[in-house]
Amino acid sequence: MKIYLPLDAAAKALGADDVAKAVQAEAAKRGIDLTLVRNGSRGMVWLEPLLEVETPEGRMAYGPMTVSDVAGVFDGSSAKALGRTDDLPWLRAQTRLTFARCGVIDPLSLDDYKAHGGYAGLTRALTMTGAEIVAEVSASGLRGRGGAGFPTGIKWKTVAEAKADQKYIVCNADEGDSGTFADRMIMEGDPFTLIEGMTIAGIACGATKGYVYLRSEYPDAIAVMEQAVRIARTAGLLGASVARSGFAFDMEIRSGAGAYVCGEETSLLNSLEGKRGVVRAKPPLPALEGFLGKPTVVNNVISLATIPVIFEKGAAFYQNFGLGRSRGTIPLQIAGNVKYGGLYEIAFGLSLGEIIDGIAGGTASGRPVKAVQVGGPLGAYFPRALFDTPFGYEEYAGKGGLIGHAGITVFDDSADMLKQARFAMEFCAIESCGKCTPCRIGAVRGVETVDRIARGDTAAIPLLTDLCDTMKSGSLCALGGFTPYPVMSALTHFPDDFHATAKEAAE
Ligand SMILES: Cc1cc2nc3c(=O)[nH]c(=O)nc-3n(C[C@H](O)[C@H](O)[C@H](O)COP(=O)(O)O)c2cc1C
Ligand code: SF4
Fold it and tell me: How many Å lie between the centroid of ligand 2 and the Cα of residue 178?
């Protein structure tokens, strides 16, 4: 009997380890020869821990499992039976390219990885020149999934063409945005995808060394990635001659100490060098003077983990999905007050309404949706009036927002948007690296100004707007520069929450 049960941190937080022990005990009691695979998550967090039993008809899903549900699975009488995993509507409607293997394979089995298309991308890349690899990435239309949406091919070209004795590939796995977990999920569920993507990046750019800067709050992801790197090295897929190609590439996992600003690429590089995580002024670009002053590609986990499928299926295949200048697929991370939260990979273009009312099933509280914050703590709050906005970089920018790392956090009508605006300023004040004045001082003044408005001083509203303008245009990086997005969107779309009299009347 073969059973799959996630080792994913979210599944573990919901009791997967206890269920795993109960499964082993039940099989032993019944004298059943059990193979228990600890897989990644399928992304349906409300069904975790999701147990799957392999059958000739395919995998059968059960969830959300508790220890007391285990015997029923063996008896065939489980009230948690959901049918074939592949037929679950949430999974069926997705286009899983980056996450195709996540939740399907044993994360640390190289054989399983290869049996599901793993290393086909590297094999193809090894038949190409560095310039051809970079051109393929450009042709795919892939843009950085870390937040800024910068074209990945252009970044790689800059590093590839830079002359230096040493170059680096740095993977940004700091994943600081609230409500996001795509990086964690893929590192825990399909770590070789990231290793393969970084290896292709190294070969394309002439970089022989890679680092994954992984947040310390992700101990499970750190453990899985470290094991996967060791396995890949032992198999000759990392090291002095990757897959006997003559190209050298090796990598290490480094853990961050926990600061939101250390997700900003230059601050990350300082932290990686053992320095304080303070933002560096640009230029010079990290692509020319990055880690230890050498040309460095800094890419998000999802950007790099998408490279293998682009090389396996071809740039044209990947580019064919999407909308406008947002090509391919995006792993939406749906969180907050929702009925169905989790990871949903789909081509760009779905409207926010389709995501919230359809996929997420509305709020968990059953109350009307008031606001949706897209793009993490620096993202704008969208009211229902903007629910027709299609998911795409330019489309969101056009509505005063951003898609960031594709985190989507839902609030019902009990949310107080003035408090959310205060939270944005407070977050910025706490997380500011302190290098520039508009952010370091502005965020503190922002908290004070929102407090004045909360006390009924509506004359402070224009002051808040002015302050946001200053932070937006004068900050050195996007922490100070984008904090005005949540603040101004809250003020613009939910003005009643900023007028004490209107608020009192409503209460
Ligand atoms: C305050 C701040 C925090 C950031 N946090 C992250 C992060 O956690 N992960 C990430 O990939 N990018 C983050 N970024 C974006 C990075 O600076 C950079 O654009 C990204 O790593 C580039 O990779 P990409 O092109 O693949 O997106 C952050 C940016 C800022 C300003
Ligand atoms: S905007 Fe804030 S976080 Fe960014 S450099 Fe300035 S002080 Fe540092």
Answer: 18
Q: How far apart are CA 272 and CA 174, in angstroms?
A: 12
Burial (0-12, 13-18, 19+ Cβ within 10 Å), 226: middle
pLDDT digits (tens, 9 = 90+) for 89-111: 999 999 999 999 999 999 999 99
Q: Crossing angle of helices 152-161/130-140, nearest 10°? A: 160
- 443-472 pLDDT per residue, tens: 999 999 999 999 999 999 999 999 999 999
Q: In whole angstroms, what is the distance from residue 202 CA to residue 130 CA?
A: 9
147 alpha carbon – ligand 1 mean position (Å): 6
What's the gap in Å between 345 CA and the centre of ligand 1? 20
Whether 503 shows a pLDDT value over 90: the answer reads: no
Q: Find the ligand nearest to 478 CA.
A: 1
The b/e string for 417-435 (b: 16+ C-beta within 10 A; e otherwise) is bbebbbbbbbbbbebbbeb
Q: Which two tokens stand for residue 458?
A: 């509506």
Among all bound ligands, the one having the nearest atom to the CA of 302 is: 1
Neighbours of 479 (CB within 10 A): 27
**Res. 186: pLDDT tops 90:** yes
User: If you ran DSSP here, which 8-state letter would residue 101 be given?
Assistant: S
Which tokens in the block code for residue 218? 């992700």
Ligand 1 nearest atom to the CA of residue 177, by list position: 8
Q: Please work out whether the CB of residue 476 comes within 6 Å of at least one atom of ligand 2.
A: yes
Alpha carbon of 168 to ligand 1 centroid (Å): 17
Higher pLDDT, 446 or 257: 446
Q: How far apart are CA 70 and CA 75, in angstroms?
A: 9
